[in-house]
């Protein structure tokens, strides 16, 4: 039995709605511990996020330039 590390079960439903001036964030880097946290739904402005590693909670803010900023709650 050979295992191919590249063959991952990428079961993405592929909800591409194309139109959207802002890029969508489906992950964030924790400002506290730098851990990368994937999220199920694209991060919306004002969403509350929780780091799976350090447990801190953040409020997401999408700037006019489409950049994601996180504020500690
Ligand atoms: Zn963290």
What does this structure look like?
The protein has 73 residues and is mostly beta strands. The chain has a domain at 27-72: Rubrerythrin, domain 2 (Single Sheet), CATH 2.20.28. The chain has strands spanning 27-29, 36-38, 48-50, 57-62, 68-72. Strands 3-4-5 form a 3-stranded antiparallel sheet, with no helix packed on it. Strands 1-2 form a two-stranded antiparallel sheet. Strand 1 and strand 2 (36-38) form a beta hairpin. Zinc ion binds at residues 30, 32-33, 35, 51, 53-54, 56.
Briefly note the structural class of the backbone: mainly beta
CATH topology group of the domain at 27-72: Rubrerythrin, domain 2
Report strand %.
25-35%
Number of H- or I-type helical stretches: 0
The CATH class of the domain at 27-72 turns out to be Mainly Beta
| N-end to C-end Cα span | 48 Å
Radius of gyration: 15 Å
Overall mean confidence score, pLDDT: 83
Tell me the CATH architecture of the domain at 27-72.
Single Sheet
Question: Could you tell me the number of beta strands?
Answer: 5
- Unreliable stretches (pLDDT < 50, length at least 5) are none
Instruction: Catalogue the ligands.
Output: zinc ion
For the largest sheet, list the strands in their spatial order.
Answer: 3-4-5
What is the general shape?
extended
Major β-sheet profile: 3 strands, antiparallel
Question: How do the helices and strands follow one another from N- to C-terminus?
Answer: EEEEE
Q: Name the helicity range.
A: under 10%
Region (Disordered): 1-23
């Amino acid at each position: 039995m050979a295992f191919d590390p590249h063959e991952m079960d990428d079961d993405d439903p592929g909800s591409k709605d194309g139109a959207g001036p802002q890029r969508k964030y489906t992950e964030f880097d924790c400002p506290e511990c730098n851990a990368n946290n994937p999220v199920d739904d694209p991060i919306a402005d004002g969403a509350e996020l929780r780091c799976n590693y350090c447990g801190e909670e953040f409020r997401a803010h999408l700037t006019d330039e489409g950049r994601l900023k996180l504020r500690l709650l």
